[in-house]
Design brief:
It is a single chain. With 509 residues, the chain is of the alpha/beta class. The protein has a domain of 350 residues: Aldolase class I (TIM Barrel, Alpha-Beta Barrel). The protein has 21 helices and 15 strands. Strands 4-13-12-11-10-7-6-5 form an 8-stranded parallel beta sheet. The longest helix is centred in the last third of the chain and has 25 residues. It is globular, with a radius of gyration of 24 Å. It binds flavin mononucleotide. Flavin mononucleotide (FMN) binds next to α16. Keywords: Membrane, Transmembrane, Transmembrane helix. This is FMN-binding glutamate synthase family protein. InterPro entries: Aldolase_TIM, GltB, Glu_synthdom, YerD.
Length: 509
């Protein structure tokens, strides 16, 4: 305007401004980069820095650690797989293979061909009438409420396209979980959201009605999660809009507190009975629970209750202390809960030792982001894996760690429609599908190099750990692996006290 009104010389200033305006418009309209949709023009600085990262890192930053839960190398693999741009890397490993704690999988002198179709895990014990074929990697529990509607839609769309399952998280079953048609594990927590009586109890009628939905393939009772075992969530009133209130069966605008413990059971036996009731109410669908294990004695008490009652869950998801959350006190995230390795070994061994392992499948969650992560967890006793944060990366998360503030810069964990709009559902759906497919393909390729064509052939000696600068030990040597039924026959010395004290009618401390 100044160029027209005052002097043509102003055109020199106008040209760059017009270019910036055009770039901004382009950024707002494109669908690929959520950061640019929310931060037009300015967001390019992030991509510029990212492009010169390897060089900068070499000089200024300690390799592969940036003080955030997932290191940069892992994030890069996940982003590239999700975008479909994964390429092979030159020059060799960037890990310190002589560091104490370094773990590696053991290759075979006779590698096998990679199976053409990924195996599925049959979930459903003898009491289940509608078993489900679970994929090797699935979307871990994350609620609508902690995630935006667009994020839930993209995750479920990816699950539908790729033939895997999405866990709803404990925030209820929403239309965003149902619309794309992906398989669901419907999770309920201590708040019983979505099947809740007015005073916060469990409503069996509502549960049965929703569990009957075709997309719901399994139902799950959340006992605890690794990032905050033993505390219930708090959803601030400001986030409880009409839609969330409806999905969760809670009053709009009022803060919702999930209690730390369940009302539906207070002893191991009652837990086992309640799981059987959930299965019955769901019409025989696979029923399980999610736990970040703590006391081995308490878990053994639950196994004793299963034996006594003659019924068992169809699956148990073990969440590691390293697990993620939308919001938790840092002390809890950092200091409470058994890490996934020990948690898996406890649950696997307890089920093997009590002869229950054949009827109970074990899922694992805790920083599973690559094929190698998945294979390690399968060696440690899991049958399948779930990923939460890696899937968040696929829908655009940049690990800004603002999930609890409603100001997520990429629209993943916010209920602010302006921010959530940045997440383009179609583009991110495809990324979720690609990430799952490439991660499972990576795991299968690794297993083939280990001489294994089916996860059931994996053995503890195939995973090794450097325990000091001079020693490497296999999982076979490092940990105890119980024989089937051993706890029933003659418990080994270091299990005997816990086994004896485990009481199916009391959670002893
Ligand atoms: C944003 C967010 C929300 C979550 N919400 C739930 C939930 O509702 N229920 C649950 O059982 N776990 C929840 N989790 C935990 C994850 O399901 C998962 O167990 C944990 O993050 C470990 O997996 P990861 O390391 O792949 O993230 C949540 C995690 C995140 C990051």
């Amino acid at each position: 305007m100044l160029a027209a009104a005052a002097s043509p010389w102003w055109s020199f200033g106008a040209a760059p401004l017009l270019l910036v305006a055009a770039l901004g418009l382009w950024d707002l309209l494109q669908r690929r980069h959520t950061v640019l949709r929310n931060y037009p023009v300015l967001g390019h600085a992030r991509y510029l820095l990212e492009s010169i990262r390897p060089e900068m890192q070499q000089y200024f930053v300690e390799r592969s650690y940036d003080g955030r839960p997932f290191d940069r190398d892992t994030r890069s693999i996940v982003y590239e797989r999700a975008k479909g741009t994964a390429a092979e890397e030159p020059f060799g490993t960037e890990r310190d293979v002589y560091a104490t704690g370094y773990e590696f999988l053991v290759p075979s002198m006779a590698p096998r061909p990679v199976p053409e179709t990924p195996p599925r895990v049959r979930v459903g014990g003898p009491d289940c009438t509608r078993p489900y074929g679970m994929a090797l990697l699935n979307v871990s529990a994350m609620s609508f409420g902690s995630l935006s509607a667009n994020a839930v839609l993209a995750l479920n769309g990816g699950a539908a396209a790729g033939g895997f399952a999405q866990d709803t998280g404990e925030g209820g079953l929403s239309e965003y979980h149902l619309r794309p048609g992906g398989d669901l594990v419907w999770e309920i927590g201590t708040g019983y959201f979505g099947c809740r009586t007015r005073d916060g109890g469990f409503d069996p009628g509502e549960f049965a009605g929703k569990a009957a939905h075709d997309s719901v393939k399994c139902v799950s009772l959340k006992l605890s999660q690794g990032a905050k075992p033993g505390i219930g969530g708090v959803l601030p009133g400001s986030k409880v809009n009409a839609e969330i209130a409806r999905v969760r069966d809670v009053p709009e605008g009022r803060t919702v507190v999930s209690p730390p413990y369940h009302r539906v059971f207070s002893t191991p036996r009652e837990l086992v009975r309640f799981l059987a009731r959930m299965r019955e109410l769901s019409g025989g669908k696979p029923t399980g629970f999610k736990i970040c294990p703590g006391s081995r004695r308490q878990f053994l008490a639950v196994c004793k209750a299963m034996l006594d009652e003659g019924t068992a869950p169809d699956f148990i998801v073990v969440d590691g202390g390293e697990g993620g959350t939308g919001a938790a006190p840092l002390e809890f995230a950092d200091h409470l809960g058994t890490p996934l390795t020990e948690g898996l070994l406890t649950v696997h061994n307890a089920l093997v030792g009590t002869g229950l392992r054949d009827r109970v499948r074990i899922g694992a969650s805790g920083k599973i982001a690559t094929g190698a992560d998945l294979v390690k967890r399968l060696v440690q006793g899991a049958d399948y894996g779930n990923a939460a944060r890696a899937m968040m990366f696929a829908v655009g998360c940049i690990q800004a760690q603002r999930c609890h503030t409603n100001t997520c810069p990429t629209g993943v964990t916010t209920q602010d429609p302006r921010r959530a709009r940045a997440l383009h559902v179609g583009d991110k759906t495809e990324r979720v599908r690609r990430l799952q497919e490439a991660t499972v393909a990576g795991a299968l390729q690794i297993m083939a190099s280990m001489g294994v064509t089916d996860p059931a052939q994996l053995r503890p000696h195939m995973l090794r750990r450097r325990t000091d600068p001079y020693t490497v030990r296999s999982y076979d040597e490092l940990y105890e692996w119980l024989e089937p039924g051993r706890l029933l026959d003659e418990p080994p010395a270091d299990w005997a006290a816990d086994w004896k004290a485990a009481d199916p009618d009391r959670f002893t401390v």
